[in-house]
Amino acid sequence: MGEVEIVLPAASSAAVSTDGKLLGLLVISGLITLLVASLIGLFAVRYRRGSKASRDRLPNWFARDLETVWTLATVGLFVAIFAWAASQDFALAVPPANSVEIHVVGKQWMWKAEHPSGQREINELHVPAEETVELVLNSQDVIHSFYVPAFRLKQDVVPGHTTRMRFHTEKIGTYRLFCAEYCGTQHSAMIGRVVVMAKEDYADWLTRQPEGDDLQEDGKKLFVAKGCAGCHYGSSKVRAPRLAGVYGSQVPLSDGRMITADDEYIRDSILQPKRDVVAGFEPIMPSFAGALSEGELVSLTAYIRSLAETETAR
Ligand code: HEC
Ligand SMILES: [Cu+2]
């Protein structure tokens, strides 16, 4: 990620067939364009003013047969393309015999995923390669759309309705995830990534996701309950830094120093906000010393750390 992708990787079986269809249509359109253009050229020369070429009416049977042939040929071509494309879409719609089922909830403005064994993540989706993954999609508020360009898959996620999306991929890697349905002011920040891992690595990753995810959840609730969100969400009227991507980054301070945003720093920012003031901001954040328990601090830090993953959401 980060670098400019010139050719979008085709990272799922759907991507391979979609690219096939696109190429097929492109070749057919190209050939037809070529045919039409050459006929225009040919006729322009042949029937130019003053040329001796015959301008007699064509015999009726010829005009009729020509009409019939090209009508049938184009209809046949279109039906063939339709059958080809539809058969691929139908294949995708067949429920797989066995699949890894992951629940994904879209809400303003994030993607939350829950794995079969309970592990949770936000704006990240870890999936195993060489298995059919079935996403069970729900929305908590408005219509979102789960879109992974490298998979060539886009699925609307509608409130009050469960939709499913399946994919099979063999390409290990990290791919961009977008919301492709305008869903409010922070819609453009509703992005994340899909991490395709080798089967063993995925199994391993699952075991390495302990309570951390629940901490994040708690932290997120606290972030709203304790009033942090009132200043730190993008929609706030108060000028406060967005916290997405802060964790682990270098933060310029108002006194010219640079500081690495680690757990310490996050903690200090909450308890002694006047100590390290972020460059470009007023020191208006109140201290939460005494107002938060240790556990709450840990949860809040876990939540802010989890926001770091959404590197592009800054
Ligand atoms: C009244 C508005 C306000 C509230 C409420 C508030 N903050 Fe802040 N926060 C700010 C401002 C402004 C800054 C930047 C200036 C500074 O560093 O003090 C900031 C800075 C921070 C930073 C450092 C950000 C960076 O870019 O390095 C963190 C972390 C942070 N706040 C977390 C929190 C948490 C957690 C809460 C709730 C417990 C909270 N804030 C509540 C306004 C607020
Ligand atoms: Cu959305």
UniProtKB/TrEMBL annotation:
Reaction equation(s) it catalyzes: 4 Fe(II)-[cytochrome c] + O2 + 8 H(+)(in) = 4 Fe(III)-[cytochrome c] + 2 H2O + 4 H(+)(out)
PANTHER family registered for this protein in UniProt: CYTOCHROME C OXIDASE SUBUNIT 2 (PTHR22888:SF9), CYTOCHROME C OXIDASE, SUBUNIT II (PTHR22888)
Domain Cytochrome oxidase subunit II copper A binding: 97-208
Lineage, uppermost ranks: Bacteria, Pseudomonadati, Pseudomonadota, Alphaproteobacteria, Hyphomicrobiales
Name of the protein in its database record: cytochrome-c oxidase
A GO cellular-component term linked to this record: membrane
Keywords of this entry: Copper, Electron transport, Heme, Iron, Membrane, Metal-binding, Oxidoreductase, Respiratory chain, Translocase, Transmembrane, Transmembrane helix, Transport
Main location: membrane
Entry-linked SUPFAM superfamilies: Cupredoxins, Cytochrome c, Cytochrome c oxidase subunit II-like, transmembrane region
Topology in membrane: Multi-pass membrane protein
Enzyme class, UniProt record, top EC level: translocase
GO molecular function: copper ion binding; cytochrome-c oxidase activity; heme binding; oxidoreductase activity
Record-annotated membrane-spanning stretches: 22-45, 66-86
Protein family per UniProt: Belongs to the cytochrome c oxidase subunit 2 family.
Pfam families per record: COX2, Cytochrom_C
UniProt keyword Metal-binding present: yes
One GO BP: ATP synthesis coupled electron transport
Keyword DNA damage appears in the UniProt entry: no
EC number: 7.1.1.9
Lineage: superkingdom: Bacteria
Cytochrome c domain mapped to chain residues: 214-308
Annotated compartments: Membrane
Function description: Subunits I and II form the functional core of the enzyme complex. Electrons originating in cytochrome c are transferred via heme a and Cu(A) to the binuclear center formed by heme a3 and Cu(B).
